Amino acid sequence: MTRPLAIATVPYLNAWPLVYGLADRPDVRLRAEPPRALAPLLRQGEADAALVPSIDYFRLTADRGERVRAHGPAAFVALPTAAIGSRGAIGSVRLFGYGDAAKLRRVRLDGDSRTSNVLARILIRRTLGQEPHYAVPADERPGGRPPDAEVVIGDRALTPPPAGATWTLDLGEAWAELVHLPFVYAFWTARADADLARLSAVLAEARDAGLAAVDDLAERAAERLGLEAAAARRYLTHQVRYAFGSPERKGLRAFYAMAVEEGLAPPDARLRLAEA
User: Fold this and answer.
1) CA dist list (Å): 166 to 34, 50, 97, 100, 155
2) In whole angstroms, what is the distance from residue 232 CA to residue 218 CA?
3) Which neighbouring-strand residues pair with 76?
């Protein structure tokens, strides 16, 4: 009997269309984890494919002994099946500010994020012209100084702003204004020693079924997340983009180049597509 495919995703609404029906398939073992946990699952062989954050893909594929060798760990390849991206405001990746946007001294990053934290640092430097101190919640001390701004991602960012927030920057919108290219937050990445043809077929089937069931997913979001069904549908059909074509890859490479320039990514990685 063929063993089930181990597929890892994030628990957020934006990924629901990409894994539609997978939890009910006997030939798939689906698990949902925060973005920060997905690359380790892939590296450790606990997943055949995962919706890996873009920045972690480049960290996985950097030439640091993790590329395939005679008896080394598996290499990792991008599946062109789908991505989570945007071509403007996305709504679920935002920077909330609590004072003067021109005086950022301390910014709290999202503890679950990988790509969005790097994107925030790039945009704060390149669009706001500032270099504040960055911290994650795990590093903060009780009763410490509150941040001047914080990155919030996922479903939590779709709800009303945190108490005390005085301004908001949608990072997808800020990227589009700066670079005029799509932004890719995450995409399907697989171990090169996995059954790539089978993975691609299963993920493409789930994607097509999920995009056809957006109305149903929007109703579920209204029940589970407390969002208005119309807002959830607009988010899934207009704000989140699932294509992973040439424009998206161009935007992805631009992001990687900036991350390298900022010292936030290794300089020796490359985008390797499974179809190549």
Assistant:
1) 28, 36, 6, 8, 20
2) 5
3) 191
pLDDT of residue 67: 41
> Measured at the alpha carbon of residue 24, what is the angle toward residues 84 and 188, in degrees to the nearest 5?
25
CB neighbour list of residue 22: distance below 8 Å, 6 or more residues apart: 7, 28, 30, 202, 206
Domains in the chain, start-ordered, CATH in brackets? 5-85+182-261 (3.40.190.10), 93-179 (3.40.190.10)
pLDDT tens, 135-179? 988 676 665 678 999 999 999 999 999 999 999 999 999 999 999
Hey, what amino acid is at 95? L
DSSP letters along 15-66, please? GGGGGTTGGG-TTEEEEE--GGGHHHHHHTTS-SEEEEEHHHHHHHHSTTT-
What whole-number distance in Å separates Cα of residue 216 and Cα of residue 233?
9
Backbone torsions φ then ψ of 213, nearest 5 degrees: -110, 25
DSSP tag of 157:
G
Q: What is the full DSSP assignment across 166-198?
A: -EEEEHHHHHHHHHSS-EEEEEEEEETTS-HHH
Coil vs helix vs strand at 232? helix
User: pTM value?
Assistant: 0.94
> Could you give the CA distance from residue 125 to residue 121 in angstroms, rounded to a whole number?
6
Distance CA 49, CA 190 (A): 4
Question: Do 72 and 151 contact (CB within 8 A), yes or no?
Answer: no
The residues, any chain, with a CB within 8 Å of residue 95's CB and separated by 6 or more, are 107, 120, 123, 124, 149, 150, 151, 152, 168, 169, 171
